[in-house]
Amino acid sequence: MTLKINYEFLEGDGGVNRFTTPLATLHPYQGWADKFLNTPGDGIEDVYLTLSAKAFGAKFLAIYHDYNSDNDSYDYGSELNLLLTRSFGEHVTVGLKYADYNADKNNINVSRNQTQSDDIDKFLGFISINF
């Protein structure tokens, strides 16, 4: 079992001047609900806890994100990510992934960030075959 505490900061000044990574794959880093694929104008501070464990031939991962803005220091919301994977033989892995984003309904977040101010749940299943 492993427990990690992480902090990620992407600066924003409230306008178009913000830290961006246009060629990056952001899905694995700022939550699987994909609410922050583009850095908001107010930037983002992401404090997240990761718990991973292995049992009964499966891997389990739980990640809790707490999102806040850089500019004006308001709360975007929080997100829980869960992942369960199991390998079958040498080449096949089956997985289930869940994301639950709960937006903070404070006035600044609702007025400035229409895409981040809505709650969302996502459930994904996948099969990976490697040779």
What would you note in describing this structure?
21% of the residues are buried. This protein has a 6-stranded antiparallel beta sheet, with no helix packed on it. The chain is elongated and about 50 Å long. It has one domain (2-79, 101-123). It is mainly β. It has one helix at residues 107-112; strands at 2-10, 44-55, 58-68, 75-88, 92-103, 120-129. It has 1 helix and 6 strands. The chain starts with a strand and ends with a strand.
At a glance:
It is built from 1 helix and 6 strands, in the order E-E-E-E-E-H-E.
Name the descriptors.
single chain; 131 residues; mainly beta; six-stranded antiparallel beta sheet; 1 helix; 6 strands; 52% strand; elongated
Task: Tell me the series of helices and strands, N- to C-terminal.
Answer: EEEEEHE
Total count of helical runs of at least 4 residues: 1
**Biggest sheet layout:** 6 strands, antiparallel
Integer average pLDDT: 91
Structural class: mainly beta
**Portion in helices:** under 10%
What ranges have pLDDT less than 50 throughout 5 or more consecutive residues? Answer: none
